[in-house]
Amino acid sequence: MRLSRVSFRYRRREPFVIEDVDADLAPGDVIELTGVNGAGKSTLLRLLAGLARPTRGTVSGRPAVVGFAPDRFPTDQPFTVTGYLRHMSRVRGRARWEPWAERLNMGRLLDTRLPDLSKGSAHKVGLVQALMAEPGLLILDEPFAGLDADTRSALPAIATEVAARGGVVIASDHQGGLRGLPGLRHWSVLDGHVTESAVAPPEPEERGQATVAVTVPLDELPRFLAGLRDQGYPAREIEEIR
Amino acid sequence: MIALAVFRLAAYIRSHRVHQALLLTVAMLAIVHGNRAPRGEEASVLTDGAILVLPVLAWAARSLLDTEPDRQREMSAVQVGGRGKEVAAGLLAAFAATAVLSALAMAWALLLGITGAPSPGLLTASFLLYALSALTGTALGALTSRVVLPSPAFSIMALLLGFLAMLLISGTSLYWLTVPLISWMKAANAGELVAQLPALGSISLAWCLIGLGAYVWLRRRT
């Protein structure tokens, strides 16, 4: 799967949320996606899932079966857990959801109505619907949020299994839940630009942050900003002085 | 895609939203067909019923499409293999719901609204008319659903104004600029419903397809 110079904005004349992203995703990759809130992580995941079309550039080679687990599962639906997962299984051509429900310790939740689920339990339903069809691309938006300890510890192994059978796993994660996995790729989203690093970057909150003002000749501005972004800093123009 | 359409219909029924449309349809039919029309009025009664039930059908289609939370709509699109299939499944489910309500309206008119037995030609024309009514309701409901018009107040106003605009425009010489509702009624009153079926049916079908095409186009990014 390849992203070629992908840019995205929601409306014309609005700034780009994702800008000039080039990336290759190979079978077996597990990718951790980090970035501050509002950096564009969820938008990038939606582009990967095919839920949004790039404003510029292309996304090619997307696997036929995609699994997508959102950060907040929509519980406002008139089904029990079993009823909902049965419907999703039929949509997926009668994929087997029961083993995944068992693996994520959902036995006692199966007859519960979706609106009555806790946040963590609802999150498990979202994970099961994403996993049931053996996706070639598994997209997890904050998969560890609200999960109990058992399920948190099961997720890295599940990601490894998906990767082992040739799938690609990409997870936006503030909590570093996948960091023990060998070969884990680290992507950071900063101001819509994606950079890859060999080691996991510490979260900005852990290091403290400062915003500096620099005055640059106008004709040097694009090169200056590009240079800072190449070094991993979220740089942007604030005002033009004539 | 069929499984996703079934899922959306099941959500519509289990959320009890279907009862609102059903009760409104029954109340409207009870009023419209409160007295059996005399012999010879069959065409008018059947046509008036198909036209008057249209806003309720549009409301039912809009309600069905709005039952699904926005995030579930995204998950459904991924599950079914793309936005296009998700949009098609939603329209299929909405048409199924409007078709059932439209069939109820036609059955009510036949059993309780008229005195004489309609001719086979009139029966066929009426069947097509009620099918077109369901399709028009689906298109109008889809174009005023939350994914297109997020504001509930603006959405319901657009639905009612859309129906009124169809009535007003189709009463003029520019009737071909919309689904020609008034033209259908005039044709029925003049006893020319079967004769004008090809022309009026073609215009109606074309506008339904344009409306559905507009919905699909508006949904290309959401």
TrEMBL record, chain A:
Q: One Pfam family for this entry, by name?
A: ABC_tran
Mark the transmembrane ranges.
none
The protein's GO terms of the molecular function aspect are: ATP binding; ATP hydrolysis activity
Q: Which UniProt keywords apply?
A: ATP-binding, Nucleotide-binding, Transport
Mind telling me which SUPFAM superfamilies this protein's record contains?
P-loop containing nucleoside triphosphate hydrolases
Answer yes or no on keyword Iron: no
ABC transporter domain: which residues? Answer: 1-216
**Gene3D superfamilies for the chain:** P-loop containing nucleotide triphosphate hydrolases
Q: Does the keyword Aminoacyl-tRNA synthetase apply?
A: no
User: Would you tell me the protein name for this molecule?
Assistant: ABC transporter family protein
Tell me the organism. Answer: Nonomuraea fuscirosea
UniProtKB/TrEMBL annotation, chain B:
Q: Tell me the keywords, alphabetical order.
A: Membrane, Transmembrane, Transmembrane helix
TM regions (residue ranges): 86-110, 122-144, 156-177, 197-218
Q: What is this protein called?
A: ABC-2 type transport system permease protein
Q: Which organism is it from?
A: Nonomuraea fuscirosea
